[in-house]
Amino acid sequence: MTTGPVPPAQSAATHLEVVAVEVAQLAAQLVRASVGRAAAAGTKSSPTDVVTATDVESESMIRRELLDRCPGSSIAGEELADDHGTNDVSWTVDPIDGTVNFLYDLPVVSVSIAASIGGRIVAGSVVDVLRGETFSASVDHGARRDGAPITSSSVPDLGQSLVGTGFSYASARRAEQSSILNRLLPVVRDIRCMGSAALNMCWVGCGRLDAYYEHDTKPYDYAAGALIAAEAGARVELPADNGAALSIASTPGTFDQLRSVVFG
């Protein structure tokens, strides 16, 4: 698998995009080699929130590769303790986004890596482990799939929108989410729940989905995908923006409609 072309101006952001692509592709290869053989090694926030040995192996490799390419960086990931670096570059890592899918041998699994400078996300990559597609972006330089530019859909009406979502591991939150589904399902084309927040956002970016929303996503879930969706022309709102633990990405023409229904 190759990285594909990136924007010609090698700014810090575009350089970090290249690094994110290279390392995410290496991690995706590692994860792909274990597809069909995964086993739960433990749980985290609830009995349904699983972690596998491959999650830890993937994150360990990602950290080594990032520090080899960008010494002194800070790294925050889903599975391991934070590394506190010595410069302004930091990385947000999800070694397997879609661990439950991975455990059940379902084909929606990704690796997500985002880079920040001084606290601002400036580059990222999400690799679809099974399809082999590489999504990436750097701030103010657009978004790409396998090196080719992508744009979000132009659907103007929520009623014609295919919407992605996901569900919390907390039972109380799931009860709230069922109420949102009851409001939303009658007013959209259809809804899909596929198990990877990072890929949902990338698919909004390339027009496979018209919109996506989900509660209780963490920065490692959305950091790269949100940048890719935004750089592809989607409108994005994250939990830090709304204080409601809600991530939203949508074509600009339907964003306000979707937000209104989801917030009730």
The CATH architecture of the largest domain can be given as 2-Layer Sandwich
Structural class of the secondary structure composition?
Answer: alpha+beta
CATH C-level class of the largest domain is Alpha Beta
Proportion of beta-strand residues: 25-35%
In DSSP terms (H or I, runs of 4 or more residues), the helix count works out at 8
Order of helix and strand elements from N to C terminus: HEEHEEHEEEEEEHEHEHEHEH
Can you tell me the overall shape? globular
Q: Quick one: CATH superfamily of the largest domain?
A: Fructose-1,6-Bisphosphatase, subunit A, domain 1
As a whole number of angstroms, the C-alpha radius of gyration is 17 Å
- The separation of the N and C termini measures 44 Å
Give the helix level as a range of percent. 25-40%
Instruction: Tell me the strand order in the biggest sheet.
Output: 3-4-5-6-7-8-9
User: How many domains comprise the coordinates?
Assistant: 2
The residue-averaged pLDDT reads: 92
Which residues form runs of ≥5 with pLDDT under 50? Answer: 1-9
Largest sheet: 7 strands, mixed
Strand segment count: 14
What is the CATH topology of the largest domain? Fructose-1,6-Bisphosphatase, Chain A, domain 1
Q: What would you say this structure looks like, in words?
A:
The radius of gyration is 17 Å and the shape is globular. It contains 8 helices and 14 strands. It folds into 2 domains: 12-149, 2-Layer Sandwich (Fructose-1,6-Bisphosphatase, Chain A, domain 1); 158-263, D-Maltodextrin-Binding Protein, domain 2, CATH 3.40.190. A hairpin with a 5-residue loop joins strand 6 and strand 7. Helix 5 (197-206) runs parallel beside helix 6 (219-231). Mean pLDDT is 92; it is low at 1-9. It is an alpha+beta fold.
